[in-house]
Amino acid sequence: YYNSETVLWLNGEFVKASEAKMDFYSQSLHYGYAVFEGIRSYKTASGETKIFKAEEHYDRLRNSALSMNMPYTWSNEELIEATYEVLRRNNFQDAYIRPVVYAPMNMSFVQNEVSYIFIEVWEMAPFFGDKLLRIMTSSFQRPNPKAFKITAKASGHYVNSILASQEAKTKGYDEALLTDMNGFAAEGVGANFFYEKDGKLFTPATGNILPGITRATVLELCNELGIEVEEKQITLDEINEADAAFFCGTAAEVIGWESFNDVKFKKNWKETASRKIQQAYLARVTEAEVLTEVIAE
Ligand code: PMP
């Protein structure tokens, strides 16, 4: 993720990653009490570097921090400017951007008076392939919304994601689908999910999921392309009957599934509405001009 030259932004200063210091007595390190974002920048069709939906991501970072009772003193403008500068100093265009807000030590659990922040970047090429994922149902469920503020991107929540992903990979799958506490399909470890049936898309309604920014983009694209889409409670049996399915998230972008619990989807991915969404998404993030041409190909 970094080498001796990598630069990050730490509480207002640009510092070498290899020289950056963090407090070993941090509450965030001990308890996972931190919030973060996963953002991407793309080399767009014009050659310019653009951060996709930067405002939405930094709005969510603020909301995550405030919902965790962490002070948040930064403006989107300041953070977006710092992010572009970190990209420039590392000479990255296609990159993953990781801001983290963290807290000093506090064993009494009174409200913190101060938070800290850093922004890291690493290179990540956009995904243009037709690779399809082998997915299993995780034995881990997503955190109960009554136990956690699940719409916040809080670091501690991701222990659940790590366990689920490790389980899937150990068993020979690419990734896991997790259910919610009632056994309905919820989301992946770091991505939302859609399935397709007879040309129509379905995705879990909000409430027990992280309502992703990519999920919102997919809903927008469905609207623009005239693809019918419904948000609802989804059973695992419905996925077994589906023509196709995909994960979507900032890092994952839109990526199709080959199989669900070893059962292959019958429809050829290349003939699905889901693939049109995948291509439209890539056109959107890279600001490729002729969306309809991408779709018609
Ligand atoms: N669900 C979870 C649990 C996630 O961690 C992510 C990644 N942030 C998503 C969904 C997708 O969110 P987004 O599209 O905003 O990246």
TrEMBL record:
Please name the pathway.
Amino-acid biosynthesis; L-isoleucine biosynthesis; L-isoleucine from 2-oxobutanoate: step 4/4; Amino-acid biosynthesis; L-leucine biosynthesis; L-leucine from 3-methyl-2-oxobutanoate: step 4/4; Amino-acid biosynthesis; L-valine biosynthesis; L-valine from pyruvate: step 4/4
Tell whether Transferase is among the UniProt keywords. Answer: yes
Q: Which cofactor does it need?
A: pyridoxal 5'-phosphate
Q: Which reaction does it catalyse?
A: L-isoleucine + 2-oxoglutarate = (S)-3-methyl-2-oxopentanoate + L-glutamate; L-valine + 2-oxoglutarate = 3-methyl-2-oxobutanoate + L-glutamate; L-leucine + 2-oxoglutarate = 4-methyl-2-oxopentanoate + L-glutamate
- Origin, by domain of life? Bacteria
Q: What is its EC number?
A: 2.6.1.42
Does Ligase count among this protein's keywords? Answer: no
Keywords in alphabetical order, please.
Answer: Amino-acid biosynthesis, Aminotransferase, Branched-chain amino acid biosynthesis, Pyridoxal phosphate, Transferase
Q: Which GO terms describe its molecular function?
A: L-isoleucine-2-oxoglutarate transaminase activity; L-leucine-2-oxoglutarate transaminase activity; L-valine-2-oxoglutarate transaminase activity
Q: Name one GO biological process term.
A: L-leucine biosynthetic process
* Pfam families in the cross-refs: Aminotran_4
EC primary class? transferase
Q: Which family does it belong to?
A: Belongs to the class-IV pyridoxal-phosphate-dependent aminotransferase family.
Q: What does this protein do?
A: Acts on leucine, isoleucine and valine.
What protein am I looking at? Branched-chain-amino-acid aminotransferase
Origin species, per record, is Panacibacter ginsenosidivorans
